Each structure stands twice: as C-alpha cells, then as structure tokens.
Amino acid sequence: MDEGMVLVYPEMILKGQLPYRDFESITGPGNSMILAGAYAGFGPNLFVERAVGLAYRIFIVLAIFGIAQRWGALIATSCAILTIVLLAGTDLWANTWYTGLSFALCSLWAMADVMSSWRCFVAGLLAGIALLGRCDFGPALIASSFPLFLSMERSAKLRFIAGIVLALSPLIWMMLVIGPTPIFHSLFVFPVFKLNPGRHLAISAAPWQMQCLLF
C-alpha cells in the first residue's frame, strides 16, 4: 500500500486534486510534489518512481560523505561505504522518510560553510524541502542546525530563513486554500495519537544491519 500511494498520489496532484482535502495523507506534500514533477516529465510508472527513490539514496550517501570530509577523506569514504551497506538492505521505492532524510542531510552539508550567504540560503531551502516531505523531522533539524545557525552572520541567517519559507510556501498555500484544521489533523493528530500506537514493533523485526548497530 505504501508504494501504491507514491504512485497514485502524485498523479492525483497532477489532475488538480489536493492532499488533506481530496485524498488522505499523513505526511507532508513534498514527496508527492517531487514525484508529480518526475511523472509530468517522464510519465507515471514504477521505473520513474524507483529512480526517484534511488536518487534520494544517492543524495544521502553524497551528503554524509560531504559532512564527514572535514575529518579527512578516509573517514568520509568509510562513512559513505557504511551508508551504502545500510541502504542496500532497503526497498528502492520513494519512501517519504528518505525524502526528508536526504534533503535534511544535504542541508547540513550546505551549512558547513556558514560564511557563504548563498550556501546558507540553499541550506534553508533544502531544510524546508525536508520539512515539506516529513514535518516530523522538525525537532531533529532544529537540534542539528541550531549551533550552525547561531554562528551565521545576520544576513546569512535571513537568507537561511528565507530559504525555509520559500520551500514551505506550497504547504502555506494549502493552508490558505484548505484551512489549517484538516492539515493539522492529518499531519499531527492522526499519526501521533491514533496511528502511532499500532506501529510499535519488536527490535527483532528490524533488518539485521540495524540490529548490529543496536547491539
């Protein structure tokens, strides 16, 4: 059903329908909008959807390599290889979790040079896209970005915030068209208080790679 949603929802957006109003969605619209753009250019099919999923994973590997480069090429390469090993055990479809993770990591990579105003703007734009795909990434993004944000100059901070607002503008527009109540219910109330209690699984159900990291 999950992969079915990333195949159908973007097509519904291309036909003028909106999430939270015309069909149910418990995640941000970012992933569906990215896939809608891909489907508009290359056609709605499984190959295009999984190509986008592969692109998300490539972005994750590149971002981790870029972030770890400050500790040397050997460590960066090792981190990238470990990431590839962990991602190799995942399904290739364009899961919204990988949307948020890829853009969040790319945002941190762009923030590595806080003296560059344009990189700060790009970092804000990427962080906003991550939130547009997974709003629940907000606390993690704030915790990881805040120290770098404090070290920015005032103009760079404004550009960073402007990038976030620009990326979140589709969600802001949807709030104006649909109203904040159904969006708040779909993104927070339903997944946190109604859906989440039934999603708790035993650690033994996790892939063996994740179990090796935990034990």
- What are the segments in which pLDDT stays under 50 over at least 5 consecutive residues? none
Question: What separation lies between the terminal Cα atoms?
Answer: 31 Å
Structural class: mainly alpha
Number of domains: 1
Portion of residues within helices: over 70%
Give an account of the 3D structure.
- The model has no long low-confidence stretch (mean pLDDT 90).
- With 215 residues, the protein is mainly α.
- The protein has helices at 2-14, 30-42, 46-68, 73-88, 96-110, 117-133, 138-150, 154-178, 180-195, 208-214.
- 73% of the residues lie in helices and 0% in strands.
- The chain has 10 helices and no strands.
- Helix 3 (46-68) runs parallel beside helix 5, helix 5 (96-110) packs antiparallel against helix 6 and helix 6 (117-133) runs parallel beside helix 8 (154-178).
- The protein has one domain.
List key phrases describing it:
215 residues, mainly alpha, globular, 0% strand
Topology of helices and strands:
Blueprint: H1 2-14, H2 30-42, H3 46-68, H4 73-88, H5 96-110, H6 117-133, H7 138-150, H8 154-178, H9 180-195, H10 208-214
What is the gist of this entry?
The protein has about 220 residues and is mainly α. The protein has one domain.
